[in-house]
Amino acid sequence: MVNYGGDEVSALVVDVGSSSVRAGYAGDDTPKAIVSSYYGYRPTAGDSDVQMGDTAGESNPEAPKPRSDAKLYLGQHGPSIWRAGMEIGHPFRDGLMSDFNPIPALISHALVDVMRTNPSEHPILVTEPAWNTSANRERMAEIMFEEFQVPAFYIANTGVLNAFAAGKGSALVVDVGHSMASITPVVDGFVLRKGLVYSALPKLVHAHAKHILANPTPVRRGIELYPHQLIATKFPVEPGAPGQFTLHEDRLAGTTDSWRSWYENREVDEWIQSVASVLDQGWNEQAAASRPPRQYEFPTGYNMYFGAERFQVGEQFFHHSPQLVAQNPNLPKNIPALLSESLRACDPDLRQVLMGNVVLTGGGSLFAGFADRLETELSRNIPHVKIHAPGNPMERRYGGWLGGSILASLGTFHQLWISREEWQEYGKAIVGQRCK
Amino acid sequence: MALSASDIRSALSLPQSTPAPAHHRRTHPSTTKKPDGISRELYSLIGPSAPSLAAHLAKPRLRQKPNLGGGGTVKWEHRPFGNSARSDTLQLFHWVKQSDPIGDYPFAKYNVQPKSYTYSQDEYSRLLEDSEWTKEETDYLFSIVQEYDLRWYVIHDRYNFPDGPIRAIEDLKDRYYSVCRKLIRNRPWPGDESTRSQLLNSYQFDKEREKMRKNYVASLEDRTPEEIAEEEALFVELKRLEQNERKFRKERDDLLRTLLGADSGLPDIVVEEDGPAALSIEGIRKKKKGGLDIDLPPTPSNIIQLGPPVSKRPPPPKSAIYDAQHCIVRVDPPAGSSNTTKVTHVPAHLRSFKLPVPKATIAPKVAQALAELGITYSRLVMPTRDNCSQLESLLDATTALIETKKIVDRVEQDIRVLKARLGIRESESADRDPKESTPMDVDLSKEDRDGEGGGRAQSVIRGRKQLCRSISVSSIDTSTSVHTRTGTKRQKRG
């Protein structure tokens, strides 16, 4: 037990990200419960099982927040199932929790409904993004102690945890997530806040992909992104031919805008994941044209071979065209800009260390060709770059959780827990003191 | 492996010999008992009459497994534990062996705090006043240093003193370490001075130097790709030049070995023994270098290639007494050569080989003079040390005599010439020219000849001349090798 410094106290690790909530036992290599962070809710409380579509219009589109007593639809049988009048909510904005109401329900769903544990029996380690506010982490501590009655709690930084998951104490963590891309310099297990940079780059890539799909091109028309739940029948068609399908007319009326756009975004995401890619040597028309096109079929039955345009999508990660920059002045920074900004803020002595320990993580980094392109971009400017990019997609997607699992199972870590006793004695201030 | 005779017999399908069952019975105490791994029905069919088959079907006897567990199952329990590294009474649960003693939490010992200095108000006003720093900020610095355990990058990152100036990481380090130094210096010290200065040294920090170093690092990073490319090109060029030089020097060394080995008074056989050894040393070094390693200094001089250097021989501890006991006489290397050149190298040799050879110009005369005395100096019957030295002194004396005789002759000749000139002024005929006389005339009374004279004399001195040339080459060589050595050193430092 002392050999590798581990001491299991059956702690739980909860990693609340903007795409999913990951929960599991410390010491495991993959989370036991992975629950979507999106949730469905009916704006009016009470009509739990009656499927009536006429209540949908009553919700206020300005503030898409469920009332605190509204029924939430969570997890596998939650938002992805069509329900009349069900809105889709998301507790995150800019990678930070902006709405804490559904958070206890999400965590409870993962811990109690999926993992079947009793949170009051386990110390819980929660993750936070590096740019989290102290108000947010104190609120999280409050939820844990007051609502889940945990015996001990700790909140750790995803940047640090990703570095730990890669087995490094000092690293430059390049984390491309669902909604945010961030670069975090970590030294001796501490985040250098001056070198921390982040931007909503993945959202831009997503929007760009949606733009490509929805707008017609010389060879095809704009693509209709109907969710498969709304399609009653469809027939196979030739590639490029318009899809032959009939819609569930009865469902259309009860479909809310938020659910529709959420599902369309999912369709775009799936298209990105299976088709989109990035060239490893920078944008080059010929190279893009020489790559084989890929076929993709949408839920409507429409299918098409995507050639050069699938490479344009990934290019947004690394390069913004001047006209795009001119149109939107506050465009999210691309990866090379983030990198140089982060490195500039670091001490010259540290740069060598950090560049030798670049950790690529986050589900967004699984974008096809991303790691190769990042290596090209880095080695173009800096000698002696070494990128640690786990080949196992689980380690990439749940790197933050994995690092938390490692940390919370260490014997030396157990002195850092904020215990219930301390919480009651010192209050919220203890969180900032203990979790540096 | 224990093969019984019956096993072999059955394998070779030989008839069972009579002692085999007995032997088998010895290994299996009761042959009537059914062995394991064979059904009762089958056993009753084949019975004890087929012991070899039964031996095959019996459970194979493997080596006994090591008993690691110590017998029995290990009981584990879910035990609560406290942690002495914590200030509260948090109880966590973990699984431990029941046999484990309930003691302090084993990981608590890793909770170590670095030693930190504190100062009183009095000490601060007496010692630590600084125009750049207020006491509040110094306090803040010390608290944050304590909080982040001297991780300076983190400290610098989190350093945020309200209304304070922006501090560089060197400023923070300088202030912290200077305060610590002052405190150590001015407080009563329980130990001795050396430990105190050691401690002081560990708190040494040179701010200006650090800043300069950091500027260098930054400028190294700010190089443009063109500059980097140019530097790399220059570096490759340098390497190429060095390689050329090394090749050139090696060729010259080979040449030297061939020439000097034969000419340094060593018999050929010694040279041959020397050659391969030198080559093998070189080969080993090459292997060690692994091809192209320029960091190693080039071979210091050709001495090493010519044979093991004298200095490398470990001198015996009690040399004088030891030498006297073992009749060892040490030959001093020729004086006046502090640098390691060819001259200092004294290989093992017979003493008689090192007898001084008279100058080539006067050698025949020496030989003749000695022959007149009835001495053959070229070969001693007993070349002992004393005899050798006597012969040496004899030769020296003879040489001196001949030199004197030569001068006398010249003077006499001059006198004669002048007299003749005086006598016969009108004729300056050729009978005065000494070169017309036979140069190799052994008669000493006859007129001498100049060393720089005829072609035959030159043939005599050829070897000598070569020696001179090669010595001069070798001295050039060492000077260049010394030069390159310093060059590589400088390069390494830079």
Automatic annotation (TrEMBL), chain A:
PANTHER family registered for this protein in UniProt: ACTIN
Protein name stated in the entry: Brg1-associated factor b
Source superkingdom: Eukaryota
Gene3D superfamilies for this protein: 3.30.420.40, Actin, Chain A, domain 4
Family label: Belongs to the actin family.
Region feature Disordered, mapped onto this chain: 46-70
InterPro entries assigned: Actin, Actin/actin-like_CS, ATPase_NBD
One Pfam family matching this protein: Actin
UniProtKB/TrEMBL annotation, chain B:
Protein keywords: Chromatin regulator, Coiled coil, Nucleus, Transcription, Transcription regulation
Major localization class: nucleus
Pfam families, per the entry: SANT_DAMP1_like (PF16282)
GO molecular function: transcription corepressor activity
Presence of the UniProt keyword Phosphoprotein in the record: no
Basic and acidic residues: bias regions: 427-453
Compartments where found: Nucleus
Keyword Transcription regulation on entry: yes
InterPro entries: DAMP1_SANT-like, Homeodomain-like_sf, SANT/Myb, Swc4/Dmap1
Span list, region Disordered: 1-37, 291-316, 427-494
Stated family: Belongs to the SWC4 family.
Record protein name field: SWR1-complex protein 4
Lineage of source species: Eukaryota, Fungi, Dikarya, Basidiomycota, Agaricomycotina
